[in-house]
Amino acid sequence: MPKVKVIKAIVLGVLSSMFLSSGIIVNSLNAFHGGSWAWTASLRYLLLLPVLVVLVMVRGKMGKLINAFKEIPLTFLIWGNIGFGGYYALLSYAIRIAPGWLVTAGFMTTVLAGILIAPFIYDDHRKVISKKALLLSSFLVISLITMQFDHLSKLQNLSELALSIGMALIAAFLWPLGNRKLMLRLEKKELQLDPMQRVLGMTIGGLPILIGLAVYGFYTSGAPSPLQLQSSFIAVLLSGVLGSTLFFKALQMVSKNQFALLTVEATQVTGVLFTLFGEMIFKGTPWPGFYGNLGFAIMALSLCCYAWLSIRKVNLTVLELP
Predict the structure, then answer these.
(1) What separation in angstroms does the CA of 8 have from each of 12, 251, 262, 321?
(2) Which of 251, 248, 195, 254 is nearest to 61 (CA)?
(3) Is 33 helix (H, G, I), strand (E, B) or coil?
(4) How many CB atoms lie under 10 A from the CB of residue 285?
(5) Which of 178, 207, 235, 286 is the most buried (most CB within 10 A)?
(6) How far is the first Cα of the chain from the last one, in angstroms, to the nearest whole number?
(7) Neighbours of 33 (CB within 10 A)
(8) pTM for this predicted structure
(9) Which DSSP string corresponds to 156-218?
(10) Radius of gyration of the chain, Cα coordinates, nearest whole angstrom
């Protein structure tokens, strides 16, 4: 695998994280203004659906997606509900009771989740856990925990914080699980779908839980407000279209190289920084203190090591890593 391809995938991973974080920022703003978490969770994908349908149809690729859906409908339904609907519902509820950047920090433990689930998904070299990747991802998780110390000392309701972080941790496993299981199933069936087709397929598959969330949101709080609709549509364009598509594209570029794949997933921790910037601008959230800065420093160092090892060992499989 050419080094340039790995570098490009890593850069796309960081860019996707920037756009994906916009969805967390919108969720945080909606919660700040009293918007229903159920509407926030469902609108992200219900508004995304027609946009992606138009984009895929204009590119003349709807037929191929329909054929793939006919061949493996349960794959799209199961992992669409788990990897899209389920994970986003958990995050939307968690942000209702905790600051967005803290929930993002909890969710970004997905960099470790992606490693831990590998033995249960793959039956080739990718099922072997890389010790180097495990070590680096553990440092990333340590950085995420460290940056929360400043905020933890100011919180009074620790039970709500524990609930929100717990939901974010569950979402951290559901996100890579859904994405990887779909990619693996497509790989085994030799079905070639581009990133946008896969995002659309997962969105269609997740409609049962998304519609259920919308019904619950209407029953508990009525129709969504104009502000919630507008902000959710912005999140659709930035997070749903740009963020998800770039992330899927980056994963696809390195799907056969487990260490590079883990590096791309690790870039998602930068979403904590992007989310913090967004909340500083729109909500006046202060920059974290000493522990926050220490956490960001550990994160930066770990990511640099991840990227360096991926580029240096481009042609090395996980089996070759000590």
Answers:
(1) 6, 11, 14, 23
(2) 195
(3) coil
(4) 18
(5) 235
(6) 20
(7) 11
(8) 0.77
(9) S-HHHHHHHHHHHHHHHHHHHHHHHHHHHHHHHTT----HHHHHHHHHHHTHHHHHHHHHHHH
(10) 19
Q: What pLDDT is attached to residue 30? A: 66
Structure tokens at 168: 């974010």
Residue-wise pLDDT for 20-72, tens only, equals: 877 777 766 666 666 688 888 888 889 889 989 999 999 999 999 999 999 99
Please check whether residue 244 is in contact with residue 20, taking contact to mean a CB–CB distance below 8 angstroms: yes
Q: What is the pLDDT of residues 151-200, one digit of tens each?
A: 666 666 667 777 888 888 899 899 889 888 998 899 888 888 888 898 89
Predicted pLDDT of residue 2: 67
Q: Which two tokens stand for residue 52?
A: 């992606």
Could you tell me how far CA 23 lies from the centroid of its own chain? 10
Residue among 42, 87, 109, 44 nearest 179 (CA)? 87
Q: Which two tokens stand for residue 112?
A: 């470790």
Among candidate residues 318, 300, 308, the one with its CA nearest the CA of residue 140: 300
The position carrying tokens 């998304």 is 210
Q: Binning pLDDT at 50, 70 and 90, where does residue 73 land?
A: very high
- Contact (Cβ atoms closer than 8 angstroms) between residue 160 and residue 97: yes
